[in-house]
């Protein structure tokens, strides 16, 4: 019963966060799902539910999407997806998590101290590539996009809409590659089905929260999530 309550809480909070910010489901849910499920199961449950959230919101947010940036993210991710699945299957995950955690923490502190970067087409492609790699390797596409959008000081509407639209592509193909190369099982799909009502509740409350968050508060949320992600990956890598 305790495990069920924890699972429901994870899904509900992560769904609210994803709906209100455009990111955060995988960042928040994956670490806690790994406490309940095996790595493959946690990653695939995350991919299934994140895909459902993106599908549910895409029509409503379509006018805020930056389609030129989205196109470059998708193109970049095509190179990152196969690299990520190779990393997932062959690499030492602790070393990978350690390296990613250090990079996330360093870049987040630079953002906090207002270090900004200029947006270019090449950097759009690079952010998409890194996101693709992290999706199929550890189930977390958000950090590269979040760091990049924060670095160019993007508006919250553009950030949320463009990342959610990108997730439609990246989550679908990441899930497909996970199933083909790592396999799947009933636990993943049954657990995703049980989680669906709480995802719907999270969608409702997340939409209400998005309206109330101003740009400054949105940026603070961003930094908190990035710091949490970096610290979690660092701690996990040292176990």
Automatic annotation (TrEMBL):
Primary location: membrane
Keyword Cell membrane: yes
Topology of this chain in the membrane: Multi-pass membrane protein
Cellular compartment(s): Cell membrane
Entry annotated with the keyword Ion transport: no
InterPro entries the UniProt entry points to: TM_pro_TauE-like, TSUP
Keywords from the UniProt entry: Cell membrane, Membrane, Transmembrane, Transmembrane helix, Transport
TM region(s), chain numbering: 7-37, 43-61, 73-90, 96-113, 164-182, 188-210, 217-235
PANTHER family cross-referenced by the UniProt entry: MEMBRANE TRANSPORTER PROTEIN (PTHR30269:SF37), TRANSMEMBRANE PROTEIN YFCA (PTHR30269)
Protein family according to the UniProt entry: Belongs to the 4-toluene sulfonate uptake permease (TSUP) (TC 2.A.102) family.
Protein's recorded name: Probable membrane transporter protein
Native organism: Lederbergia wuyishanensis
